[in-house]
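FAQ

Q: What does a record look like?
A: Structure on top, sequence underneath. For example:
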């Protein structure tokens, strides 16, 4: 299969390229600037601005891929300030909306290659009902003010793929960790190690994680099977009160300080408090059953231990 990977230098794209090649696929990998960190037979690199509709159309018409994988984001400058959440995600949200529309428009005249698009299920679930959600459950109708633009972009992306493309697949990744990710190499990890990442309120918010290599393997599996929405997460949704202290221990930081919800609101607003106390986790049952996908790290506990072990070795 000839696969066009858009956004190949991102944290999932870097894991995806070698897995696609190992599976026997040929790949055209696009980035906005630097080439992807891989070089191999059956791998070609092109520079592409996904927001440039004529350029997208020209490339898709030239390559005529069997499948397109949309991994494009602009998240290299993530911060811990959730009051600026939508601002940080401005370009990523344009890639989700206009970029997806450009790929769908370009696909129309070349026989509708299969389209796989990255989405997210880390916090968008409606904060009602049980602690773990399936693809049939509703998203949050009233997100925190600073998250509203990002949620609109996620919904727009998913509706485009599911309604405007005859073979579109939406892969809702959970909280990503792994090489070069913000959780295991960026400001969030630094805050945990320095004891600046507190446990807010009850810490009862449920998070679902997925290692970037597992997100990539689910994407490879979805090239040839499945349709619609899939939660791509590990088997072990966990409350913040459980995973944050373990992350701090593994990363060599102090136990997180406990602060009341009102202190969390003053520090990070409604978004931070909801992330810590109310968000729901995600079930991967559909992805396991329909994609035949099994994560290499069935629990974040195993993945965190492996990842932070590598971080410690690299730092020594």
């Amino acid at each position: 299969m000839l696969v066009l990977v858009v956004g190949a230098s991102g944290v999932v794209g870097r894991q995806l390229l070698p897995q696609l090649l190992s599976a026997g696929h040929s790949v055209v990998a696009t980035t906005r600037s630097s080439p992807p960190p891989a070089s191999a037979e059956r791998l070609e690199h092109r520079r592409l601005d996904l927001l440039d509709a004529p350029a997208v159309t020209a490339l898709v018409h030239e390559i005529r891929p069997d499948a397109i994988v949309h991994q494009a984001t602009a998240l290299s400058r993530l911060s811990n300030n959730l009051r600026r959440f939508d601002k940080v995600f401005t370009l990523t949200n344009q890639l989700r909306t206009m970029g997806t529309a450009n790929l769908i428009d370009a696909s129309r005249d070349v026989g509708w290659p299969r389209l796989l698009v990255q989405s997210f299920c880390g916090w968008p679930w409606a904060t009602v009902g049980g602690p773990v959600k399936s693809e049939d459950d509703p998203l949050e109708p009233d997100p925190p003010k600073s998250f509203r633009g990002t949620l609109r972009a996620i919904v727009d992306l998913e509706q485009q793929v599911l309604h405007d493309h005859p073979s579109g697949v939406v892969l809702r990744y959970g909280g990503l960790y792994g090489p070069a990710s913000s959780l295991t190499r960026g400001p969030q990890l630094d805050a945990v190690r320095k004891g600046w990442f507190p446990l807010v309120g009850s810490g009862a918010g449920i998070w679902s994680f997925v290692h970037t290599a597992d997100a990539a393997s689910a994407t490879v599996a979805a090239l040839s099977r499945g349709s619609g929405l899939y939660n791509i997460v590990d088997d072990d949704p966990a409350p913040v009160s459980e995973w944050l202290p373990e992350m701090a221990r593994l990363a060599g930081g102090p136990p997180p300080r406990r602060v009341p919800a009102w202190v969390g609101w003053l520090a990070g607003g409604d978004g931070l408090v909801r992330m810590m106390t109310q968000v729901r986790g995600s079930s991967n049952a559909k992805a396991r059953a329909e994609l035949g996908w099994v994560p290499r790290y069935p629990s974040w506990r195993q993945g965190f231990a492996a990842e932070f072990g590598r971080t410690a070795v690299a730092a020594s």
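Q: Is there anything notable about this one?
A: The chain is about 45% helix and 20% strand.
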